[in-house]
Amino acid sequence: MLSQVYRYGFQPFNQHLLPWVQCTTISRSHCIQPSVIRHVRSWSNIPFITVPLSRTHGKSFAHRSELKQAKRIVVKLGSAVVTRGDECGLALGRLASIVEQVSVLQNQGREMMLVTSGAVAFGKQRLRHEILLSQSVRQALHSGQNQLKEMAIPVLEARACAAAGQSGLMALYEAMFTQYSICAAQILVTNLDFHDEQKRRNLNGTLHELLRMNIVPIVNTNDAVVPPAEPNSDLQGVNVISVKDNDSLAARLAVEMKTDLLIVLSDVEGLFDSPPGSDDAKLIDIFYPGDQQSVTFGTKSRVGMGGMEAKVKAALWALQGGTSVVIANGTHPKVSGHVITDIVEGKKVGTFFSEVKPAGPTVEQQGEMARSGGRMLATLEPEQRAEIIHRLADLLTDQRDEILLANKKDLEEAEGRLAPPLLKRLSLSTSKLNSLAIGLRQIAASSQDSVGRVLRRTRIAKNLELEQVTVPIGVLLVIFESRPDCLPQVAALAIASGNGLLLKGGKEAAHSNRILHLLTQEALSIHGVKEAVQLVNTREEVEDLCRLDKMIDLIIPRGSSQLVRDIQKAAKGIPVMGHSEGICHMYVDSEASVDKVTRLVRDSKCEYPAACNALETLLIHRDLLRTPLFDQIIDMLRVEQVKIHAGPKFASYLTFSPSEVKSLRTEYGDLELCIEVVDNVQDAIDHIHKYGSSHTDVIVTENENTAEFFLQHVDSACVFWNASTRFSDGYRFGLGAEVGISTSRIHARGPVGLEGLLTTKWLLRGKDHVVSDFSEHGSLKYLHENLPIPQRNTN
Question: Average pLDDT, stretch 38-62?
Answer without folding.
Answer: 49
